[in-house]
Amino acid sequence: GMGGVGKTTLAQLVYNDPKVKTHFEKRIWVYVSDPFEEIKIAKAIIGNDPPSSNELDDVLQRLSKFIEGKRFLIVLDDVWTQDREKWEQLEVALIQSGAKGSRILVTTRKHEVADMMRATSHMISMRELSEQSCLSIFNHMAFYDREVYESKKFEDISLEVVKKCKGLPLALKEL
Fold first, then answer.
1. Is beta strand 103-106 parallel, antiparallel or unpaired with respect to 72-79?
2. Where do transmembrane segments lie in this chain (predicted)?
């Protein structure tokens, strides 16, 4: 989905869920963005003790050892690349080393990224909120401790503000 629709927020809710925390031995969040640099991403997954080498093979070998036999959840947030080769090198190291039940959760604005990762059957497409949903959220945030009639007094202004947010939860949040 487009920027501001809530992909990262939803991924954070999953990542921080108590059941998820106990289910996975390792939980790792990596902000990816553009460009997709396999070495940088692998080192971010490894965390506090990354290899000093910048050779992809060395880094991927260390990554494999780091997650070997462990059930992990790795969130790759804001992926843009559609380069299958770059993804495959990282994917192979992750899938071959992690324990059964490991998961990789990816957020992206581009459907093509999910295609490239062969993840379309598990994809959740996120869309803008309806005007009514936005109005409900806005009223809750703006008038949460007031009587209902007070929010009715400002209904026209509230609706104007909500229309400017174009269904994007992030725009509502930033108000």
1. parallel
2. none
CA angle 106, 111, 115 (to 5 degrees): 80
Yes or no: say if 34 and 65 are a contact pair by the CB < 8 Å rule: no
Provide the whole-model pTM. 0.80
pLDDT digits (tens, 9 = 90+) for 38-81: 999 999 999 988 888 889 999 999 999 999 999 999 999 999 88
Q: Where are the domains of the chain?
A: 7-122, 131-174
